[in-house]
Amino acid sequence: MLDFAAQYAAFQRRDPAWDGIVFVAVRTTGVYCRPVCRARTPLARNVRFYGSAASAERAGYRPCLRCRPEAAPFCPAWKGTRSTVERALALIEAGALDRGNVAALADRLGIGARHLSRLFDEHLDASPLQVALSLRVQRAKRLIDGSNLPIRVVAQRAGFSSARRMNAAFAKLYGRSPASLRRKAAAKHRDAMNLDGDLQWPGPTAPSAPNRNSR
């Protein structure tokens, strides 16, 4: 694990090479971001770094609505040094914990559930279930931002067992409902469209008719 100074220096310069490798949490705001976030850089004493979105969320931080950490590339750090962790993450990404439990996932990997949890704690600082929930929320957030699907369909496609469970996850993480986030995204889109229209350069002015009384 790299030391704090190296991570903070990368954060200060908005280094894209770190995007998806570390997540930056700010104690004074309760928000975590991607290292490429354009928000003002907080003081070092207010910053903590996490190796996964799930571990930042477990610590009580909510995703930044500006840099959208759910849109970060799949974190290489999650793949760790063990092929077992990589295989488990691929299965979770494919929905293994949306339809089954940790014991069934561990059985598919040929190890015990307790050992799988230890590996996740070592490499990700989060449990398999926490990682699965984080991925569900990320899927749902992308669908909310990028589609007009009904909320219940978003919940189903994201891997939630019901819209109620998705609403509860969003309330805990974002402090608002999926529908509220969609309204906010739609309002931002309308504002951007209006701004584009206001900034358009006016076309050429039609020539005025000649004055018949002038000579």
What does this structure look like?
- The chain is an alpha+beta fold and 215 residues long.
- Helices cover 51% and strands 6% of the residues.
- It has a 4-stranded mixed beta sheet with strand order 3-1-2-4.
- Helix 5 (102-109) packs across helix 6 (113-124), helix 7 packs antiparallel against helix 8 and helix 7 (128-146) runs parallel beside helix 10 (178-198).
- The protein is flat.
Offer a quick outline of the entry.
This protein is of the alpha+beta class and 215 residues long. The protein is 51% helix and 6% strand. The relative contact order is 0.09.
Record keyword descriptors for this entry.
4-stranded mixed sheet, alpha+beta, flat, 6% strand, 215 residues, 51% helix, 10 helices
Summarize the topology.
Layout: H1 4-12, E1 23-26, E2 31-33, E3 47-50, H2 53-58, E4 62-63, H3 83-93, H4 96-99, H5 102-109, H6 113-124, H7 128-146, H8 151-158, H9 163-174, H10 178-198
Parallel strand pairs: 2-4
Antiparallel strand pairs: 1-2, 1-3
Helix pairs in contact: 5-6, 7-8, 7-10
